[in-house]
Amino acid sequence: MVVEVAYLAIVPFILSFLVLSIFAKRLNRFAPFISIFLAAVSLAILAVSFLEFNQTIEVKFSWLTFANINFTIGFLMDKLSMMFALLVSIISFFVLVYSYSYMDKKDALSRFHAEMSLFAGSMLGIVLSSNFITLLIFWEIVGLSSYLLIGFWHYKKEAARAAKKAFVIIILGDVFMFAGIAFLATQFPSLDFNYLNSNATSSPFLTIAMSLILVGAIAKSAQFPLHVWLGDAMEGPTPVSTLLHSATMVKAGIFLVARLLPLYSLAHLLDPIALIGVATAFIGATIAFSEIDIKRVLAFSTVSQLGFMMLALGASKIGASMLYSFTQTFSKAAIFMIAGIIMHSLKEQRDLRKIRIRPKSMIFYIALLGMLVMSGLPPFGDFFGKDTIVGSAMGYNTLFFVTILFTSFISTLYISRWIFLPLGNSIKLKPEGKKKHKIPLTMLVPTILLLVGAVSSGFFTPYLFHYFGEAEEFNMLSIVLSTSSVVAAILISYAVFYKKMIKPIVFVRSPLGIFHKIFVNKYWIDAAYDKFALGMFNFVFKALDYIDVFVIDRIVNLFNPVSEIFADTFKKMQSGVTQTYVVGILLGLLLLFAMLNADKIMLLLGV
Amino acid sequence: MSIPLEYFIVVSTALFVIASYGIITRKNMLVIFMCAEVLVAAAAINFVAFSAFKTGNPIGQSFVVFGWILSVSDTIIALALFMYILKEEGNIDLTKLRKLKW
Q1: Could you tell me if residue B54 is inside a domain?
Q2: Residues A569-605 pLDDT 10s
Q3: Is residue B97 part of a domain?
Q4: Where are the alpha helices (DSSP H) in A315-397?
Q5: Touching A: B residues 77-96, CB under 8 Å
Q6: Do A224 and A283 meet the contact criterion of CB atoms below 8 Å apart?
Q7: pTM above threshold 0.80
Q8: B100 within domain boundaries
Q9: How many folded domains does chain B comprise?
Q10: B20 located within any domain
Q11: Nearest CA in chain A to B16
């Protein structure tokens, strides 16, 4: 049975990381082949074990034993983890194939593929781990590889800055999460998810611990108010944005909350989670609507969609949340790949106003299909995902329902603007851009396959609900409302951004412009962080500097004369004549001998 | 056993003292190095003697063989260093090489 050792799917990725980082220089040309081959091995292991999977399997290795806590490395193969693991390995494989032609041959390919493999392996580790200790290890590696990959083009100033920003925010969340785990460790004899989910009882301690852990999940999944890093993370190469910052890594927080959902409901934290989800969905969608960077639009749309999933978890509709993360993984990865193809043909041009998609070109059709899938029109995957969440919000809270419905309207606006804006551009392309650009096959095939996945993923809806043991709920009213809002949004966007019936600038100049100002400035959240965090750190650093100069240095200076006297006295021993040292050694030896035989010497001397 | 253990100890102590005296008083680094080798030989005699008289197994004696190998190898290094010092400084008089001081 392969399924019993499904966790071994991590090994090929780690192997690829080790080989490629040890023999980086020598293997640079072959790096893509090695990592793609090993990703295929991992995918095969997981695919076979997914088909074989029929019951939960837990594997444990003892690691450390302390007074009353056993640290074990454990892997849990259950419905949730198998689904996520399969998704991760599918997307990893496709993205690695895609990056074969995306990445420049002159780049440090070994480093790129090593870091991508490290990420994929540790992401599998996160979803397969069965206790907090294992999870934390992989969780940190994922944060590290995200940092490394965002800053892959480290010579670009913005990339280095974005990497630092992402790392600081994620680590900030991790510190909270670590505190929460430590809290749990003091309360429970075991940190296994299964044990905690079935044995925990409602208490203030649990609420504190779980909210600390929630901070870590929020930071990783780019939820409000810690969503600020995801937009900047787009400075990394597009395959990185596809794999880490849209499809897999940002789902880690969602996954963790889904895994611990019984605990969260015991800790009375479901309502805050839903609130965070709604806020994130709305804020992300509105920021995405006013972005002009081809990738940042998608980044903030990811933020928004993660908010949708968080909301569904808050409403304890795990099936709806998982369905959306299933369909969104395909659609988002596909649309990021499309963005990558467009950027690649235009020398990394990312400004939507300077990009032009030629109507009736191949990329136009692909992008149009991607847009329709993302916007959530009925037969496509995201329709099922999004609408089950909107429907579940309806029964949960009317205010949330209205907000999420409006957000889904804005979602369609921004994603259709994303394609209509470059389509309606009348800018002249430079001569080199005019030449017909052929899309490399290794980029086209993964994109189309993922798009096919996104189109058809909706058909897995009944299967997925059955898989998670929930009844599928479709609310006719919410479906009608949201589908009509989608159609309306596409039509509005077509009129405004493509036909330019009303110039967008008219809105900006009208009283509604205030909203535009808010959205463009991202609600001033980034600016507030810059001001507040920098001010705080500057204060702390100044205080520490003062302590260093006026307290610690002064104390040290007190001892200065003493050590000076010692030094002056004993430095004369270092005469430079080697033989005096030999005499010293021999005398020392004699002294030692005498000390050891002091009693006999005393006897001899007759004392 | 015709020669008792004490004789060996006396010989090795004598060698040890002579060698130490040589190391302290001589100037030529080559001679000093030879004295150091005698020092090692003194220790080796002790090893062999005690091994033969007290334990009855050859471990101590075989250990001396390892000691020899080590002395041979450090002889090579030492001679190479002396050659280098001779080339750089013009002599190998230990009392004149006094650069390493405070």
Answers
A1: yes
A2: 888 888 888 888 889 999 999 999 889 988 888 888 8
A3: no
A4: 318-345, 362-375, 381-396
A5: 94-95
A6: yes
A7: no
A8: no
A9: 1
A10: no
A11: A586
